[in-house]
Amino acid sequence: MLLLAIETSCDETSAAVIRDGCALSNVVSSQIRLHAEYGGVVPELAAREHLRNLTPVTQTALREARVEPEQLDAVAATRGPGLPGALMIGFKAAQGIAFALNRPFIGVHHHEAHLYSPWISGNPPASDFESFESNVSLIVSGGHTMLVHVENLSRHRLLGSTLDDAAGECFDKVGKLLGLPYPAGPEIDRLAEQGNAKAFDFPRPMIHEPNDDFSFSGLKTSVRYFLRDNPGLANDAGSLRDLCASVQSAIVDVLVAKTVKAAERLGVRCVTASGGVTCNRALRRALANECEEAGLRLRLAAGSLCTDNAAMIGILAEHRLSTGTPRTHGSEEILPNWSLEEVA
Taking the model in full, what pTM does it have? Predict the structure, then answer.
């Protein structure tokens, strides 16, 4: 099967061509620089940029794959969740392409694609679903933090999610308090590599709670009060590195502890992680160390597949179509608030 996939759920415009589980191309155009001056994603700006970039991005994906539109067997796009205006651009464009070519179309759940992205590897990226095993999956990004029990390639159960700020959102808000540019996550990661994670003791919210939910707003508030009581500390280069390392350690400790505890409680021997924050080096190291100590196998999404991309959308869509999942009808619309539980 030869499939074109489109992803426009937030601030990356992406298109990929998939053949038999392998990404022949995966083109991503990021809007980070455009949104940086506003300190976060501006929905109207994101939609406008998707409209501007989608055609050249799609053309590039087809060209890199050496595929003509008429050769496509199917088309897929992210249906939700995401920013309504952003989703609309990619979803409707993909529907239009499918209609014009008289090809089947399928809308994909963005988080479900993240769930299975750790089972995509290699260069070019290709699915490794044959080695799939039941796992506890951590999805952690700017807008979402959740734990999911993935029982098989078509069945999963949401265990817990954030009650307020997501982990990535906490990184960005703390970064703003520290005077760091948006997005602050990568900058905190960079500075923390040279800092002392034990220099400052910040709370680990809900780390001992007997559930799988997260909460990071209290950590953000703790940092705000700490900086209020210690004015000028963030202006010292050494102290700034220590602050970044200490805050990062608090976030990572919670994410890792809850993930490992969930796997042990359920008797699952495999842990996976995906989403933009999974690029964080401290998180990847901590997951590797704690999973090894607990005797758990670990699969992390490849760095290029942690952030939003069409390859993971297309590979999952192709798998779904090949296993009999009904196509998405042309009259169906985007689902900006689509819950992962609705596709379990």
Answer: 0.95
